[in-house]
Amino acid sequence: MADRQIPGLSLAVIHDRKLIKTQGYGFLNTELNVKTRPSSIFPIASMSKPLTATAIMLLVQGGKVELDAPIGNYLADAPDHWQEITVRRLLDHTAGLSESVYAENSWIGPDDFTEKAAIAPLDFEPGESWMYSNTGYSLASSLVEEVSGDTFSAFMANRMFEPTGMNHTDVILDSYLLSNHAMGYFADGNDSLQPLSQVLRGDNSIRKIMHGLQGAGSVTSNVLDLARWEIALQKGQLLDSAMQAEMYELGTMTSGKRTGYGLGWFIKDINGHAVISHGGNLWGYSTSISRFPDDQLTVIVLTNKNGEDGDRIARKIAEQYIPDLAIDGNAPAVADPSPAITEQILAFVNGDETAIEMTPEDQIALTSTVRGRQMYAQWVDRSRQAPVKELELLAVASHPNGTKHRYRATTDSGARLLSIVITPDGFISGMDMSLEDG
Questions:
Q1: Residue 97 gets which letter from DSSP?
Q2: Which among 70-84, 113-127, 195-209 has the top mean pLDDT?
Q3: Residue 329: is its pLDDT beyond 90?
Q4: Are 67 and 94 in contact (CB under 8 A)?
Q5: Torsion of CA 130, 327, 374, 3, to 10 degrees
Q6: For position 160, what pLDDT does the model report?
Q7: Taking a C-beta distance cutoff of 8 angstroms, is the pair 418, 438 a contact?
Q8: Helix, strand, coil % (nearest 5) of the chain?
Q9: If DSSP codes are grouped into helix, strand and coil, which group holds residue 65?
Q10: Exposure class string for 174-212: b at 16+ Cβ within 10 A, else e
Q11: What does 320-333 look like in DSSP terms, one character per residue?
């Protein structure tokens, strides 16, 4: 926390359906010297999406919604270009929905959201690609309202929060008004932090912005309530095992390639250990819930600083309990079975977009969507600022779309880890590429 200038962090660790550790670190509010506690309330940002997906699955379990039915069966006045979007594609981010509604007005109210979203053309045909979508999850909350006849807030309270004892969790900010809430902070680029209250004011208030993220990122909670929710899921008190298994299946595009996302959860493995997780980033806050089901461990992290990698923090904490999760950046290199491809990857990560082709699905995602273009531009900019001098192969593992290669990437500032998926036909998956510290 000191190294990353994180003011406050609240933590819960669950093992074998029991809460085994909960603690607050640092400060909720540095100006007032208010210490962080396990009961402290944080906006959980996109960690809200697994809760929204669970709400949909409650309706599926009750026979009121079918995952592979068009959303037009449930959303009144759905436009013609939504007719091929199923509920499943809404939840696994393969619907192709545009994020332009948020780009134009990030604090649009949920009552106006569906109408404005319906005007925007699709970024790609449903199933043609994958791109993370707040729009899809806001529409999912509208679908819950249409089918249940309740407001989304009432449905979540009646069907999820109250039955599991989540007494300090709300869909849109009610609990955030309590004195025990976390002030959000931004790094200002000058080795100091700015409180959220000085960044967002008036019409740009956090309340108005979060009001427009219903279903996608508006929940406020604490680690104690989130631990109750997690344990209730593990015990089958909300969803039965079949419903939960459905959520943890990787999505499939029309090409047959798999995504890295199920229904409300990112899904991967680290050193052979399954990981089911979801992070969140919202103005002034970074969060994560990370499950390690093979090891019966869950780590929940809530912080009050913008732009942190909550999933990585959770993984590093999990390593204290599961040492095998640690990735050894100093491991000896292994024989490279395809040095020519490694050379192409080296040129690609250093900004040569023509060095090796991405999969058609990734080309669509990274060129046809606002979020994709931003991600790719950031990647290229970062690569050119800190070029990789050498790639050493550390491991090769099977992946649903081919093989996952892990490299040690040497730069002037030190070594980092590069993981990248290569398909059988020699394409790379830009959406399955990450560069991080070990």
A1: -
A2: 70-84
A3: no
A4: no
A5: 140
A6: 98
A7: no
A8: 35, 25, 40
A9: coil
A10: ebbeeeebbbbbbbeeeeebbbbeebbeeeeebebbbbb
A11: TT-GGG---TTPPP
The amino acid occupying position 174 is D
Placement of tokens 């990248």 in the chain: 420
The confidence score (pLDDT) of residue 22 equals: 98
pLDDT at 327: 85
Mean of pLDDT values over 313-339: 93
Closest CA to 428 of 333, 375, 354: 354
Q: Write down the pLDDT at residue 352.
A: 86
Closest CA to 97 of 118, 66, 67: 118
Distances from the Cα of 173 to the Cαs of 15, 19, 56, 206, 222, in angstroms?
Answer: 29, 26, 21, 9, 12
Residue 176 corresponds to which tokens in the numbers above?
Answer: 């955030």
The token duo for 43 is 């906006």
**For residues 337 and 339, what is the distance between their CA atoms, to the nearest angstrom?**
6
Instruction: Judge whether residue 62 has pLDDT over 50.
Output: yes
* Cβ(314)–Cβ(290) below 8 Å: yes
Going by pLDDT thresholds of 50, 70 and 90, the confidence category of residue 207 is: low
Whether the per-residue pLDDT at 203 is higher than 60: the answer is no
Domains of the chain in start order, with CATH, are 1-326 (3.40.710.10), 339-436 (3.10.450)
**Residue 419 Cα distances to 207, 258, 319, angstroms:** 38, 17, 19
Element (H, E) at 186: strand 185-187
Nearest CA among 279, 228, 318 for reference residue 39: 228
Count the residues in the chain: 438
Average pLDDT over residues 92-119: 77
Question: What pLDDT is recorded for position 432?
Answer: 67
Q: Among 176, 221, 197, which Cα is nearest to 31's?
A: 197
What's the number of CA atoms in the CB half-sphere (13 Å) around residue 267?
22
Query: Taking the mean position of all CA atoms in its chain, how far away is CA 221?
Result: 17
Instruction: Please compute the mean of the pLDDT values over residues 163-176 and round it to a whole number.
Output: 82
pLDDT > 50? residue 202: no
Copy the structure tokens of residue 160.
């999820």
Strand ranges, E, within 30-183: 34-35, 42-43
Which 8-state DSSP code applies to residue 160? I
CB-based contact 22:32 (threshold 8 Å): no
User: Looking at residues 317-338, what average pLDDT do you find?
Assistant: 92
Q: How far is CA 182 from the centre of its chain?
A: 21
